Amino acid sequence: MRFISILIISLLVGCANNVAQFIPVAYGEREALYFTGRGAAAGIMMDAYMGGAGVAIGIAIDEGIAKDISAALLANNPKFSMASLVNNVLSEQGKKGVSVAGLKSVVIDKYGFQSAPDDNVSPLLEMQFVCNSGALQKVKLDPDENVPSITFEQSKTNGALVENQLRAAVDVLIDKNSRICSEH
After folding, report:
1. Helix (H) or strand (E) holding 87
2. Is it the case that residue 18 has pLDDT exceeding 60?
3. Is the pLDDT of residue 24 over 80?
4. What residues does 35 pair with on adjacent strands?
5. What's the Cα-to-Cα distance from 110 to each of 17, 116, 174, rounded to whole Å?
6. Predicted pLDDT at 51
7. How many Å apart are CA 8 and CA 3, to the nearest integer?
8. Cα(79)–Cα(4) distance, rounded to whole angstroms?
9. Maximum distance among all alpha carbons in the chain?
């Protein structure tokens, strides 16, 4: 009995040491997935002929595409939350030895996809890291980062691939900025 108790306590202590700290993740102005590209381009062209209505139509096109991508994402994972995904990646990074100790919280300003060459889309991600020191660092995924693009059609039909793309974007952005709070 004593051996079993010692074994259980050892396992619990070992697991507790491997758990990264919980870092609150919140959304900025908008919680929904973004898409930018096709509608924005169409809106600019229509603006010359239709004025503000053309721009509004362009925005509506992009919003419709964002809803299609979200629908595919939620069909694959009905419990998907970008905030949970970011927190999971932070936890994984902490377990791999990436220092997240100085990070107080994260704000997701914008996430989604944007048009890329050859009828592809690439992840779009903008976040703010709030440090324990009070410093605030805004970070943005550059389109030429190491996250490959996917086809436009895949983004609207393959929710698992969409989720993997968003996870890869978060991974790249956190890796790139892993020492932000330790430098302030």
Report:
1. helix 82-95
2. no
3. yes
4. 113
5. 33, 17, 15
6. 64
7. 9
8. 37
9. 83
Other C-beta atoms within 10 Å of 46: how many?
19
Structural contact between residues 89 and 170, judged by C-beta atoms closer than 8 angstroms: yes
Compute the chain's Rg from CA coordinates: 20
Alpha-carbon span 37 to 45, nearest angstrom: 13
Averaged over 108-114, what is the pLDDT? 95
Are 36 and 115 within 8 A, CB to CB?
Answer: yes
Other CB atoms within 10 Å distance of the CB of residue 35? 26
Give me the residue label for tokens 């890869």. 168
DSSP class per residue in 19-85: PPPP--EEESS--SPEEESHHHHHHHHHHHHHTHHHHHHHHHHHHHHHHHHHHHHHHH-TT--HHHH
pLDDT in the model for residue 183: 56
CA distance 33 to 66: 6
Give residue-wise pLDDT tens across range 116-159. 888 899 999 999 998 888 888 899 998 777 788 999 999 999 99
Here the tokens at position 163 are: 């989720």
